């Protein structure tokens, strides 16, 4: 019988003993949980999980392996992975490597064999918490002291966003894509619609963005606290009157902040692929993919030019807004899915329609 050889120690002193897989390194991060039944490859490579230790609630992870097509970034930045059972002999025609092999290559430690249900219930009861994945010979009290002495990073967006601008050419509308920790699937949705995309860093100025003559600006997902990038918030405030803007997840929160609303940290966040969201303008309900630890304060929208468009049917939190005067809108969920359902994919078409309206209005003004 296998013997425990690794442990997950939480900041409150709780210890979960289990088996090692992935890299043999020690890792400290914020422990969160994801409720998706599939999509572990897209999840581990989602830049919005930067700095976090992901607990999967589904009991078997790795059973269809890892392939070269489903990465959301080429440099995954999660700190660690926690599963009930890690499959070491996957079965799928696209599988190229096992989960264990890939995590080892990425220097990401994993722990299996623990009671992930108990861990998830603890996070739901007390909120997200710091944790350390370490070898079993490490003193848990020393690891708790390490967590108490270590602050989680505040520059998470800067850690994962592009440092330089680059084009992804197309023949359609010109979109400046502000990279806050972009999932590749967002870029794929734009290129699938023929957009001519210029990807820019999160700290690109209003002048740099408008120099590209955009028909629209898109703000991507990203990790961490939205208030940590005040320069980006100020830039968005300048852009809103000038050009159509579409924000997803972190982009949604930054649009809210740029318009005078507030954000707050959720107790344990929304992370999974089956979250129901209601469009209060149409009464349509979509099942959505989500990954965020912060939310827009509903009450704070009252003093802004934003109006609520979508709400979560799980907890009533803000899932979408639009500007009353300009072609700016955003959603908290991930319409590009990956992983998850594509129920809400149509919001990309709304962005295309807004750019078309913007261009037509400009033509009318030029001929007036």
UniProtKB/TrEMBL annotation:
Pathway: Pyrimidine metabolism; UMP biosynthesis via de novo pathway; (S)-dihydroorotate from bicarbonate: step 1/3; Amino-acid biosynthesis; L-arginine biosynthesis; carbamoyl phosphate from bicarbonate: step 1/1. It catalyses: hydrogencarbonate + L-glutamine + 2 ATP + H2O = carbamoyl phosphate + L-glutamate + 2 ADP + phosphate + 2 H(+); L-glutamine + H2O = L-glutamate + NH4(+). Residues 4-134 form the Carbamoyl-phosphate synthase small subunit N-terminal domain. It holds the Pfam family GATase. Its EC number is 6.3.5.5. It comes from the Bacteria. SUPFAM superfamilies: Carbamoyl phosphate synthetase, small subunit N-terminal domain (SSF52021), Class I glutamine amidotransferase-like (SSF52317). PROSITE patterns: GATASE_TYPE_1 (PS51273). Composed of two chains; the small (or glutamine) chain promotes the hydrolysis of glutamine to ammonia, which is used by the large (or ammonia) chain to synthesize carbamoyl phosphate. Tetramer of heterodimers (alpha,beta)4. This is Carbamoyl phosphate synthase small chain. It comes from Psittacicella melopsittaci. The lineage of its organism: Bacteria, Pseudomonadati, Pseudomonadota, Gammaproteobacteria, Pasteurellales.
